[in-house]
């Protein structure tokens, strides 16, 4: 069976590994790449590319079980320190590229095959830093930089700036158990305006939001306005400016194919405005979903996050419909997108747990599955239960289709 999961970087971290254990499933993860915080933002700015961090996080979840997995995880997690010496790092990377006998990278022992496959990417990364710095006023910093982000940048340039091919080929290098597809390959910047008129000028600002003031709208820009440049405008003028430069993107052919070929599609939990809504609002996404004959399951968050601290369970559903319909000229209903909606039925009063507003949910045109989906009061989903429930539902779903 083909299972497609629509997720962010770590939103499905307890769910995806459980599905991977089922060797009868061919798993595809669809992830947008608008992250622009920390070293990912530095990579994006320096090389003019999409952000690799969420793709990287999902690929790490898909690493195969082997004697090398611990070291491969170390590589995916490795970050250079804050006060790093740039010349020392470049020398170390150059030595790695030019030395055949030592497969260590960042002092991490790698299988010879993987080491050999990474060397052309790292060489391209090093050479491009030298070229860009000598021809522009840009300067690359390794402070708190992920080595895998550097590898992604080198691979992106190696594959002639095609982000989709980059994700696929790095997946092959590490023999991941499934595939990870970027929603699109167009380099855009994610912005937002809150209901009080405050503009959030980047994905990083959206992620770091610490407020109960809700986000009114998301936008994608080719050339975003500089930080604070719209602050003098009225709230309506800010909105009009952001809307006038909004630039919708199209899902790739591979994403369309993955959706249409799916037997099961899962809308994973996660940060909504930074990780999930930008995927939902991509042109072609809604149409592909409504044409797909797959069983579609929407999973509501258990734990609240910084972007949606006041959201109740129904708000996650309404938000998803809003942004899915943005990608289409049709006004689709909830039942057009989701066959089942999983909601954690916890009634405990806790600011960090999403409230199950059952009175509103029961009025929706949806097949609600209300249950305790939380893993040992962690605020995270019980991946084993989710996996079991989805596959059991699929059996009855198939019978009803016959």
Q: What does this molecule look like?
A:
With about 400 residues, the chain is of the alpha/beta class. It is about 45% helix and about 10% strand. It contains 17 helices and 10 strands. The strands form 2 sheets. It has a 7-stranded parallel β-sheet with strand order 3-2-1-7-8-9-10, sandwiched between helices. A hairpin with a 4-residue loop joins strand 4 (about 190-195) and strand 5. Helix 5 (about 85-100) packs across helix 6, helix 6 packs across helix 7 (about 145-160) and helix 11 (about 255-260) runs parallel beside helix 13 (about 285-290). The mean pLDDT is about 95.
Average of pLDDT? 94
Radius of gyration: 22 Å
What's the total number of strands? 10
Low-confidence stretches: none
Termini separation: 17 Å
> What structural category arises from helix and sheet content?
alpha/beta
Count of discrete structural domains: 3
Helix content: 40-55%
Determine the number of helices (DSSP H or I, runs of at least 4 residues).
Answer: 17
Sequence of secondary-structure elements: EHEHHHHHHHEEEHEHHEHHEHHEHEH
């Amino acid at each position: 069976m083909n299972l497609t999961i629509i997720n962010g970087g770590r939103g499905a971290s307890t769910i995806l590994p459980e599905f991977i254990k089922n060797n009868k499933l061919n798993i595809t993860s669809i992830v947008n790449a608008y992250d622009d915080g920390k070293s990912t933002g530095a990579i994006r700015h320096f090389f003019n590319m999409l952000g690799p961090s969420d793709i990287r996080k999902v690929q790490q979840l898909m690493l195969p079980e082997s004697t090398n997995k611990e070291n491969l995880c170390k590589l995916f997690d490795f970050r250079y320190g804050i006060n790093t010496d740039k010349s020392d790092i470049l020398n170390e990377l150059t030595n790695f590229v030019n030395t055949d006998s030592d497969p260590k990278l960042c002092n991490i022992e790698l299988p010879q095959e993987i080491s050999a496959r990474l060397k052309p990417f790292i060489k391209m990364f090093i050479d491009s830093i030298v070229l860009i710095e000598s021809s522009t006023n840009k300067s690359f910093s390794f402070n708190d930089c992920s080595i895998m982000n550097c590898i992604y940048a080198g691979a992106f340039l190696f594959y002639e700036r095609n982000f989709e091919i980059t994700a696929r080929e790095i997946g092959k290098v590490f023999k991941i158990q499934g595939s990870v597809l970027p929603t699109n390959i167009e380099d855009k910047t994610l912005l937002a305006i809150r209901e009080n008129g405050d503009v959030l000028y980047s994905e990083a600002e959206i992620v770091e939001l610490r407020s109960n003031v809700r986000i009114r709208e998301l936008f994608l820009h080719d050339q975003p306005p500089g930080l604070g440049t719209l602050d003098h405008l009225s709230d309506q003028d800010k909105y009009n400016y952001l809307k006038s430069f909004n630039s919708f993107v199209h899902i790739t052919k591979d994403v369309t194919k993955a959706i249409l070929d799916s037997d099961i599609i899962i809308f994973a939990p996660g940060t909504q405005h930074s990780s999930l809504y930008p995927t939902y609002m991509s042109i072609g996404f809604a149409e592909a979903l409504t044409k797909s004959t797959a069983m579609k399951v929407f999973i509501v968050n258990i734990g609240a996050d910084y972007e949606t601290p006041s959201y109740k369970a129904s708000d996650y559903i309404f938000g998803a419909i809003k942004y899915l319909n943005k990608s289409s000229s049709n006004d689709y209903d909830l039942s057009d997108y989701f066959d089942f909606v999983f909601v954690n039925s916890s009634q405990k009063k806790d600011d960090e747990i999403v409230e199950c507003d059952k009175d509103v949910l029961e009025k929706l045109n949806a097949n609600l599955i209300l249950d305790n989906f939380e893993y040992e009061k962690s605020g995270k989903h019980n991946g084993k239960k989710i996996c079991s429930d989805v596959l059991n539902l699929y059996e009855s779903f198939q019978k009803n289709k016959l």
